[in-house]
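call fold(seq) -> tokens
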Amino acid sequence: MSSLRKALCLGVYLSAWMMTAADGDAPKAENVRWLSLDFKTLLLWTATPSNYTFTVGYSWDDSDWMRSPNCIQIAETECDLSKELEPLRRTFIADIQTEPDKMTHYEVEDLPHTYSPPFNPYGQSEISAANFTVEMVEEGKVSVTIQDPLTSFHKYGKQLSIRDIFKSDLQYKISYYKSGNTGKRDIIFASNRGEVSGLDGGHSYCFMVAAFIPSRDKAYQQGAWSIQQCTPGHKNAFQDLSLGALVGGLFILAIVLVVIVAVTVVCCRRRARSSRTYQSSSVV
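ret:
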């Protein structure tokens, strides 16, 4: 009986030691961060390579934890939560639980897990650069038309744009400057189309646009800037010339003028000499 008790105690001790060792070797998710662009949202983390897997859960406002169907016992260190994080105005938090292979017995509370920072898709998802066109309306006025970036969401067979999500909260910032001038001006459009007036006629202007959501915190208000587009303008011949070409042209012009003056002086002297000779012949 005494030997049986000792064997049981030894078994319990060894089991506890094995669980502690397993817990010590289990990798913990680190550097947890959110990566979200146009509401395509990924949860990313780093971990030491091992045979362990990860299961991602999420919650909001102290609600019960939900498991992401596509992120249960995954070997990857990222999880796409785009479809789970709705409604978009909620603030979510994720939990990355480390799990061993299915053959290993364990208690969930004995394995490490890591919580993510809070994330609000509506207020924090980055917005990509928008495409736009610039057309001349009249002298000194252009029309700017902006195309809303698309999101990862679909509804009734249609891919939703950021306008479908933000509605009247979405505005656009337009930054422009006169070509050759470093001074920039910014204006705000409440819609996808607007006009910029007061431009100097005949000059080229360059434009960039970016989504602007003033209802967000300042760090997340502005989306990425678009590629710059410039109007052609009406350049004269001197605007097209570089400084070196202009100096060379002036030098050649100066030489031509010197030659013309020299030829004129020579011709005038010869004419004057011929005139004096003719007068002398007439007197004789």
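Confidence is low (pLDDT under 50) at residues 6-23.
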